Request: fold
Amino acid sequence: MPKVDLTNYRGREHAFIKHYLLAKYLSRWGYKIGSKWDPLVFIDGFAGPWGARDEDFKDASFGIAVRSLNEAVDGLSKVNRNVHGVCIFVEKEPQPFIKLDAFAKKYSTERVRARAFKGRFIDKIPAN
Reply:
């Protein structure tokens, strides 16, 4: 078994567990759901980034989610299944939201749209 690199997770090892599971299973979920339904929707109601150290947010749940959904959408297109992904990220804290919003705008595409909302998750449900 390869050794795990926790460099970007020092002091937040619990986040590594969440991110590992997200990276391992979200694209698999996308393949299963996307084989029948469209769109694939991922919602993170408390998106952060909190303590992310990678400049491309490979150590943040929203970065992992966008990459995983892109993997599933691309893979499904190879078997003639045209699906789309939607990532909805909510963050209430102003500074993390600025980073989250910039990420969503940078990585949103026609195939996998990413959108950040500022505020409390519970308050965003009726509006969007």
